[in-house]
Tat pathway signal protein (Roseateles puraquae), 458 residues
Amino acid sequence: MKINRIPELQRREFLRRASALGAAGTAAPWALTLAGIGEAAAATAPTDYRALVCVFLYGGNDYGNTLVPYDQPSYDAYATIRQTLSTPRDQLAATALGLSVGGRQMALAPQLGKLKSLWDAGKLGVQLNVGTLVQPTTLAQYKAQSVPLPPKLFSHNDQQSVWQSSAPEGAVTGWGGRLGDLFLSGNGNTTFTCINVSGNAVYMAGKQAVQYQVSTSGAVPINGVVRPLYGSQACSDALRSMITASRSHWMEAELSRVTSRSIGAQGIVSASLAALPAMKTTFDTTSSLSNQLAMVAKLIAARQSLGVARQVYFVSIGGFDLHDFLVNQHPGLLTAVNDALASFYAATVELGVENQVTTFTASDFGRTLTSNGDGSDHGWGSHHFIMGGAVKGGRYWGTLPSVSVNGPDDVGQGRLLPTTGVDQLGATLATWMGVSATDLPTVLPQIGNYTQRDMGYF
């Protein structure tokens, strides 16, 4: 028995580590191809479909110029603190949000006009001052270090990982993947439960669920298998036979099995996408984020042939680490987010699934409200968007922070101390996906530290 059990344990460890390669960043192409493949099973048509789409803004989005104070006293305080980074008030009139909070009014960045329309239509709302926490934390507790805090605050890699997994860099599962774990048995084809169009992210890795990774063009093929190798079909057949043949060593056997799944999954995805009618909704083909979300829309359109009832998706855009050139570069990044999210929502409406798809933004952290001269530095809490037909939009969730430095919401330089934890955001989304209160700690291990587990998005 020992002779048989040791290889089995090794095989499981190999699978676990393979799915976690490049946990918070980007792994080598071979890892992306092999680690994200699920077994190809017979597809069954879903009867109750829902999908959750994470849009990650890598680098740390600047909250101060995304949701901008608009009432005159708050704007004046903002402009005084931000100095040359502040957005001129007259540029905010078209994106001012009518909802007042405690006598204060906010505006979206001028580049977010399409998201303003979704806000007005009640399809998008703003989660205020959300960030990584272990438990609800006051400023006094933070200063006294009297409660546990997220590890390595203000570090890109670690805070990306904590946002996505509730653990620092090196984590092997994320809450999107753990969410996928709960839905594997309900999907006719488990391969396509967690799909990443952005490369690799720990958010999408589960204990059983692995992220199936695609490009903006679709499934990533093994070229020598899907088309004649050196112009010869016989060579292609020989290659397929060689890389999928049964092996006696457990690692070689596992590699052959995963490769076979990859080939099978690629065939299913390619055939499913090829059978789709052309979509009327247009996406900006010059934008990576738009192209990623266009592929998500196509995969959702193919949900019946893929055999899925619940899915988790991940897309991303980088470039938000703007210590310099914030005024010049941040508007372009927000324009890309604005256009991509608006097109994606329109696509869900075209497909008739707008009430079954919820999209949310996330990022490493927010940034300082203070200027460093040409940009802002690493922060903590930030504001994020929740979008979808089921969302009770046109409103804020959470607590609007003061516009101040060294104020009641600030740990220094306008770095917001989060008043809502990522676990609360994740729990609200997971509950909408169908996760029971009993199973929530499986997805978000720290949710037991919070009394409020539903932020009211739906």
Observations:
- Residues 1-45 have pLDDT under 50 and may be disordered.
- Residues 326-351 form the longest helix (26 residues).
- The chain has one domain: 2-221+249-449.
- Residues 352 and 417 are 39 Å apart (CA to CA).
